[in-house]
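[step 3/7] inverse_fold.run input=structure_tokens len=412
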């Protein structure tokens, strides 16, 4: 059923027109009345009619003024002027306002029916076109999302091939950001809102969530790397506000083309991997890496494990070996000096103290097993000289290994 508004200052005209339409076209229209221009505007706002029959000469706001006001909000609404005045100036203004029909009173029934049939057909066709347009847009959006997902995963080297497909954006110059979520959002829409905000900040592509992180590939005409850092800091602050989730971010260098964006993503991933615990944003240029850095294990990023956490796991597995600061720093491709400072800031201990404490704690565990002699314990925790081991153990515990074993046996 369609909505029809009849605006006329003569009640008999309105009622007569309604009666005629209901008889000629039964159960097709729900009809509303307006006695002047102001009332017509209000009824349009409240009822949103499909068709308006408007008289011109009415008290207060006349018909053409009311139509002009209605057109501001509803430019495609079907409007028919129904008037006794055959003035050229009125007709000319009506045309400028996009009026669909201009009928002169008295109007024949056949004219009214013909006009309504025509307008209803137009409305039905426009609705059909809108639905087809929305369906096309939806399909294109789905295709774009699929294309964007596939392409970003290709840049992240999660899939091997993108041949024969069109990139979602023109590839000129750009850089990658990796965004790490400390916790995953409870609702999917939160992540989508964060990605939408990122896209409103500049032309970019967003990857799907991989583990606890996703990647952003921004286009830029700028060549100054230092500008990407304050940009990333501002973006991170806004994304945290939107998601109510603590975030960390790595920044790659500005590159060109597919291979360049792949390289920028690797750099952003490395910057995130080496991000100190006391920082939230890091550019790859701020990481003093050694030469020939191999790509990091993707699992480390997916589980949002930091470089220091990886080092701690490595030390727990290798404390029994003769470990040096230089060897461990090299294993994570950092210069020894930077690694030493970073390790101290993040763990609160020097590298030597951390390893020594780890070895002493492991020695305590082994000393509780009386089947092992002290020399075996010494070798098992990475010391080659039993005397040196005893001195270090006493320094950390105020007891010699023998005294510690005796005290443990006495207490248990």
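[step 3/7] decode complete -> sequence:
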């Amino acid at each position: 059923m369609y909505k029809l508004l009849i605006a006329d200052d003569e009640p008999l005209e309105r009622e007569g027109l309604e009666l005629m339409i209901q008889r000629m076209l039964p159960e097709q229209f729900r009809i509303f009345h307006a006695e002047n221009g102001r009332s017509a505007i209000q009824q349009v706002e409240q009822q949103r009619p499909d068709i308006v029959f408007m008289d011109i000469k009415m008290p207060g706001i006349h018909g053409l003024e009311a139509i002009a006001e209605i057109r501001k909000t509803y430019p495609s609404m079907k409007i028919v002027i129904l008037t006794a005045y055959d003035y050229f100036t009125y007709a000319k203004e009506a045309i400028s306002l996009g009026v669909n029909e201009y009928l002169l009173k008295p109007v024949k029934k056949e004219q009214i029916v013909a006009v309504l049939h025509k307008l209803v057909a137009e409305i039905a066709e426009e609705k059909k076109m809108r639905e087809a347009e929305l369906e096309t847009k939806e399909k294109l959006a789905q295709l774009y999302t699929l294309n964007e997902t596939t392409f970003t995963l290709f840049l992240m080297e999660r899939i091997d091939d993108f041949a024969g497909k069109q990139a979602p954006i023109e590839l000129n110059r750009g850089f990658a950001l990796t965004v790490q979520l400390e916790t995953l959002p409870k609702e999917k829409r939160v992540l989508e809102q964060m990605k939408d905000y990122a896209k409103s900040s500049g032309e970019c592509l967003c990857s799907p969530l991989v583990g606890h992180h996703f990647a952003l590939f921004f286009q830029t005409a700028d060549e100054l790397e230092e500008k990407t850092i304050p940009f990333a800091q501002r973006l991170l602050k806004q994304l945290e506000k939107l998601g109510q989730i603590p975030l960390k971010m790595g920044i790659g260098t500005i590159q060109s083309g597919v291979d360049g964006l792949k390289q920028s993503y690797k750099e952003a991933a490395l910057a995130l991997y080496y991000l100190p615990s006391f920082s939230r944003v890091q550019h790859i240029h701020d990481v003093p890496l050694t030469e020939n850095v191999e790509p990091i294990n993707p699992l480390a990023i997916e589980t949002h494990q930091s470089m220091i956490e990886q080092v701690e796991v490595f030390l727990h597995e290798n404390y029994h070996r003769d470990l040096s600061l230089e060897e461990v720093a090299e294993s994570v491709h950092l210069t020894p000096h930077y690694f030493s400072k970073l390790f101290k800031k993040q763990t609160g201990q020097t590298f030597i103290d951390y390893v020594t404490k780890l070895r002493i704690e492991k020695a305590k565990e082994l000393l509780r097993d009386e089947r092992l002699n002290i020399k075996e314990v010494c070798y098992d925790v990475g010391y080659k000289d039993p005397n040196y081991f005893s001195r270090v153990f006493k320094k950390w515990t105020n007891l010699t290994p023998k005294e510690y074993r005796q005290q443990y046996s006495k207490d248990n």
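[step 4/7] annotate
The CA atoms of residues 183 and 346 lie 21 Å apart.
DSSP finds 16 helices and eleven strands in the chain.
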